[in-house]
Amino acid sequence: MAENLTIIEHPLVQHKLSLMRRETTSTAKFRSLMTEISMLLAYEVTRDLPLRYETIQTPMAEMEAPVLAADKKLVVVSIMRAGQGILDGILQLIPSARVGHVGIYREPHSLVPIEYYFKVPDDTEERDMLVVDPMMATGNSAIAAVDRLKQTNPKSIKFLCILAAPEGIRHFQEHHPEIPIYTAAIDQGLDEHGYIIPGLGDAGDRLFGTK
Ligand code: URA
Q: Where does uracil bind (predicted)?
């Protein structure tokens, strides 16, 4: 399981995750925590973004300064609806990234993913893709989203979540072993409804105050 799996154990990430998990955390606080934690996770996920050098003038001298070589070439794909929380954080760091959306819901009895929306930029062949969904539970939605996204031939794909269940990671890696997964934590497992235990509840409901 350890291959292609990065657990981001930074103290700030772990602290913010514990605040998110708390039942008493308000919707507003949960939302801002998800933005903040996503920015911290994005720092690790984007570690290998290429740089190029351009000549700039500081108030003191001219220099060759490093800038992102391909910030516009990144496409962040949010698995709706909870992926939106991660997307907001990442776009604060990389505002020129392009954005895609995949709408998938889990049929409540079978937990089978059903696609109801799909929109990504036309030129994904030229783009590195970061797929985001805060919770990797059974892995079914992530697998279905990546199956579909692979049809658009992106240059590369990474998957970013905040919490994962061991079952979900195993399942995802059976289908997409080459895709790196980044997460802040791996929890105990799933309950009979496919929720992560101890988890943080329904990320979409907590993010949007529905329920
Ligand atoms: N989706 C969630 O939002 N929470 C879980 O625990 C599992 C899937």
A: 196, 201-203
pTM across the whole model: 0.94
* Residue 203 assigned as binding residue: yes
Expressed in angstroms and rounded, the spacing between residue 20 Cα and the centre of ligand 1 is 13
CB 115 within 8 A of CB 104: yes
Domains and CATH numbers, the chain: 5-208 (3.40.50.2020)
pLDDT tens string 55-87? 999 999 999 999 998 767 899 999 999 999 999
- Complex ipTM more than 0.90, yes or no: yes
- How far, in Å, is the centroid of ligand 1 from the Cα of 190? 9
